[in-house]
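[job 4417] fold queue: 2 targets
>>> target A
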Amino acid sequence: MTELLILLAVSLAVSAVGWKYFIYFFSLGYGYGVAALAMTMGVMYHGNLSLPTIALLVLLFVFGVRLGTYLFLRERKAAAYRKILYDPSLQQKKPLSVILTVWLFCAVLYVAQVSPVAFRLSNAEQGV
């Protein structure tokens, strides 16, 4: 349980990029959040890593970095996308309760998506 709370804290920290632009909760927060969670699990369970779990963590990390970098570069290079992203009508202030709810649920979702690997590593640590 403590491990999941650590993962949730990491996920909340990384997906906090959404406080800059709301869409980042779903885009950059997801990509880099998955990468950060993979790194965190690698550090937390470094003594119990097997070849398959190392492969899973590497794949999660590569997927997250690739996705996050692609989304970041797309925003920087594509004028049409920037026009949509920064459209004043989409930048209306959202209620704090909406922002907090989306932030929390996104962070929980990202942890849930990588939790099978975390459970496998936790079981290996306990000798199961």
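>>> target B
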Amino acid sequence: PTLRCNLNCSYCQVSRVDEDAIGFDWTPDTLEKLDRFFAEHAAKKIKIEFQGGEISLRPDLIRSVEKIAERYSNSIEIVACSNLFHISKDFEDLFKKENFFISTSLDGNDAEMMRNRTHNLAAAKRNIKNIRHVLDTYGAEKIAFLPTITEDQKKRPEELIKTYFDIGTSGIFLRPVNFMGFARKKHGEAKAGFHEWEQFYRRSLDYIYELNQTGYFEEFYVADLIRQVFGDESSALVDFRSPAWFLQNYAVIDFDGTIYPSDEARMLTRTRTVDLSVGSLGSGLDEDKIAALNSTAIHQINSDCMHCAYQPYCGIDIIDDLS
């Protein structure tokens, strides 16, 4: 609902704007259009995730969207993706709600947070203090953490994982800088060397194995794969299944009301790589374009996948393929 942000992270994927910028927030007119969209498309059970920009700048919009959703859905879960750089009283008032959760970025210790996100050590320390405040006050089930691994961090996997283990989480999702969007300008080399990433990942799993001699800690992605192979579960990642139908599991609505099949599709559109928008709150959904995307979102007919031994346990991400 807003592109305005109070940080300027090095790996930001979509064009954020300054905190005081005008014209980059949902308006009352946008909310009216959202109400009509929900009337037609909302499920009885719905999960709403607020991304940004920095949504903590507009807790009023979170409340407005929830009120709209309550008219059409019986069960609502809300996730606010926030950097937790600043916690206002209005924003923290939402933390007490049972259906409200937070997803935040934690790239490691305060030095790593300074390097990637705050560009100031005192600010990084405050950022981590706020993260610990949420964890200590509202519990581990209230907040989820996600790191973004930059080139320099590949040399120190144990340090990153120890930060997560010590803060009290039960796992970590290791992922490199997303090569989509504007992050590729500052971190173009992040995807250059697969072997560097493989070495980092193997070291990480070895260290996680050591931690699991006395506790429990998992790497989310490999755990997700293992559950698919041995537990016969579908992937927890909605954009990595087959068929990976777009506009059925979720939709992304941008600050201007434009609708996308995924956040990565929004990034590719913003960088003018390819227009993957599939409608807007004002005009409705472009069913023909959605059908065209869905016709290729099946790995059983993909030339790279159809003869692969791992196909039963895998998925397809055509947005990533396009990138």
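[job 4417] complete. Note on B: Residues 160 and 166 are 10 Å apart (CA to CA).
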